[in-house]
Design brief:
The protein is built from eight helices and no strands. By secondary structure, the chain is an all-alpha fold. The chain folds into two domains: about 45 residues, Arc Repressor Mutant, subunit A; about 130 residues, Tetracycline Repressor, domain 2, CATH 1.10.357. Keywords: DNA-binding, Transcription, Transcription regulation.
Amino acid sequence: MPRAGLNPERVVDLGCEIADEVGWDGLTLAAVAQRAGVRLPSLYKHVANADDLRTRIAVRALTGLHESLAAAVEDAPGLELDALARAYRDFARAHPGRYPAVVRAARPDEPELAAAGGALLEVINAALAEYGLAGDDLVDAVRILRSALHGFVTLEAGGGFRMARDVEQTFTRMVAGLDAALGALRARA
């Protein structure tokens, strides 16, 4: 009989909390079991294994990032790139342990993860619509944007920006640079 109050969603909730406290690499089923107040074998009634838990957390993280980006872009018409970039950074800062899960590509046997990743790409594509890019140019734009944002938030989270310069100013300039680069892609197309 499963412990009262413990179900797959609660196990994922606990996994998310622990990841945000100790980091993605520190997330273990043993830590989740301890937090839940159960023995480790009890978790297997709710998740198949550690990979299953990590996949479920990745779906949750992608869904949360998608919702954050979609809301930000909707609330800032005409400033989609800036709003999207700031929402991306805010999500990574608010969820430092689960954020690394958003970069994982889905395997063929992970339709929920693929759907969550696809929804995230849709909102990014929509935000980039102002640049009038399509096909390979749009793919390149999405990759450029995600790489820049991921690199920035990863370096920031890891303490990689310890110079005296204000990080906010650097972020603002990076987003302006991305705007210029995406505009140049449009001009080239």
